[in-house]
């Protein structure tokens, strides 16, 4: 099937999936999420593909997260829950993917874009990359509670509670990414790694991935995500919270740029 927001290419036993909305900082509108979900299904069913590389067009942003401009705001709690569930299901498909997933990150990876950037089994990033979960600043939650499974308690809390980002070198030091390379070589480095991994039998790669995911599920990953999604719906649909109501009003009356300024200004040193 044809895709508009996401580009799909094949290089032998490796699939290359590229977010293709650079002018929108590769923000994830509904169409983007639906296309990613369909591509995951397509690649899972392809016996020739062993490894998937997920990258993004452009140098400014891997992904700025959920698109706050192009999709209409939900009208009620049912619609809010449907959207939260759609986004979480796409991310969980990536997490449970049988094929090895390598993420190739240049520029900022924020909010749901941070989830996408770090969800790979392996992550290669450029020197310009940064990773952040700024949702707390406008009173919402990350779509997928991923950081507890990737890093330690203090860093996780700092990122979730302040919305601060970590740069590429800090992410590497903390073990969030596998390698930092010059920006112009990120995709090539990720592709080389993918072809090295593709030398192994598909069945062996699949079995290893299933075993690792089973370990995380025994530790509570799947159940935690289910509960977190309902919490996400509650927070997304909340009213009567002064901080959220103020920012919601600014966004409605003055636009996204004013909203972002008002959101981030109190957090600047």
Descriptive notes:
By secondary structure, the chain is α/β, with parallel strands linked by helices. The chain folds into two domains: 6-228, Alpha-Beta Complex (2-enoyl-CoA Hydratase, Chain A, domain 1); 239-267, no CATH class. It contains ten helices and ten strands. It has helices spanning 30-44, 77-95, 112-118, 153-162, 168-173, 186-197, 202-218, 221-236, 242-254, 256-264, and strands at 6-11, 14-19, 51-56, 61-63, 100-105, 108-110, 122-126, 130-132, 165-167, 179-181. It has a six-stranded mixed sheet, sandwiched between helices. A four-stranded mixed sheet has the order 4-6-8-9. Strand 1 (6-11) and strand 2 (14-19) form a beta hairpin. The longest helix is centred in the first third of the chain and has 19 residues, at 77-95. The termini are far apart. The model has no long low-confidence stretch (mean pLDDT 96).
What are the SSEs and their pairings?
Layout: E1 6-11, E2 14-19, H1 30-44, E3 51-56, E4 61-63, H2 77-95, E5 100-105, E6 108-110, H3 112-118, E7 122-126, E8 130-132, H4 153-162, E9 165-167, H5 168-173, E10 179-181, H6 186-197, H7 202-218, H8 221-236, H9 242-254, H10 256-264
Parallel strand pairs: 2-3, 3-5, 4-6, 5-7, 6-8, 7-10
Antiparallel strand pairs: 1-2, 8-9
Helix pairs in contact: 1-2, 2-8, 9-10
CATH architecture of the largest domain: Alpha-Beta Complex
Q: What's the helix count?
A: 10
Strand content: 15-25%
Indicate the percent of residues in helices: 40-55%
Largest sheet: 6 strands, mixed
Cα-based radius of gyration, to the nearest Å: 18 Å
Name of the CATH class of the largest domain: Alpha Beta
Order of strands across the main sheet: 1-2-3-5-7-10
Stated plainly, the CATH topology of the largest domain is called: 2-enoyl-CoA Hydratase, Chain A, domain 1
The helix-strand sequence is: EEHEEHEEHEEHEHEHHHHH
Structural class: alpha/beta
What is the CATH homology-level superfamily of the largest domain? 2-enoyl-CoA Hydratase, Chain A, domain 1
What is the β-strand count? 10
The outline comes out as globular
Report, as a whole number of angstroms, the end-to-end distance: 48 Å
**Unreliably modeled segments:** none
Instruction: Tell me the number of structural domains.
Output: 2
Average pLDDT works out at 96
């Amino acid at each position: 099937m044809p895709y508009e927001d996401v580009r799909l290419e094949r290089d032998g036993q490796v699939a290359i999936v590229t977010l293709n909305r650079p002018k929108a900082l590769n923000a994830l509108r509904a169409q983007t999420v639906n296309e990613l979900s369909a591509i995951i299904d397509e690649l899972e069913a392809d016996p020739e593909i062993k490894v998937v590389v997920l990258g993004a067009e452009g140098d400014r942003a891997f992904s700025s997260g959920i698109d706050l401009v192009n999709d209409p705001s939900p009208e009620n709690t049912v619609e809010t829950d449907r959207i939260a569930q759609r986004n979480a299901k796409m991310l969980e498909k990536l997490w449970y993917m049988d094929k090895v997933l390598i993420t190739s990150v240049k520029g900022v990876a924020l909010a749901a874009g941070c989830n996408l950037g770090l969800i790979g089994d392996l992550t290669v990033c450029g020197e310009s990359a940064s990773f952040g979960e700024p949702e707390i600043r406008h009173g919402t939650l990350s779509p997928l509670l991923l950081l507890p499974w990737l890093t330690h308690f203090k860093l996780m809390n700092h990122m979730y509670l302040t919305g601060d980002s970590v740069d590429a070198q800090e992410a590497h030091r903390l073990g969030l990414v596998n390698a930092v390379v010059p920006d112009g070589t990120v995709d090539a480095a990720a592709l080389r790694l993918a072809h090295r991994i593709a030398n192994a039998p598909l069945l062996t790669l699949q079995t290893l991935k299933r075993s690792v995911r089973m370990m995380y599920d025994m530790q509570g990953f799947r159940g935690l995500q289910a509960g977190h999604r309902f919490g996400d719906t509650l927070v997304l649909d909340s009213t009567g919270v002064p901080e959220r109501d103020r920012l919601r009003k600014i966004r409605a009356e003055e636009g996204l740029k004013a909203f972002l300024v008002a959101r981030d200004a109190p957090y600047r040193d």
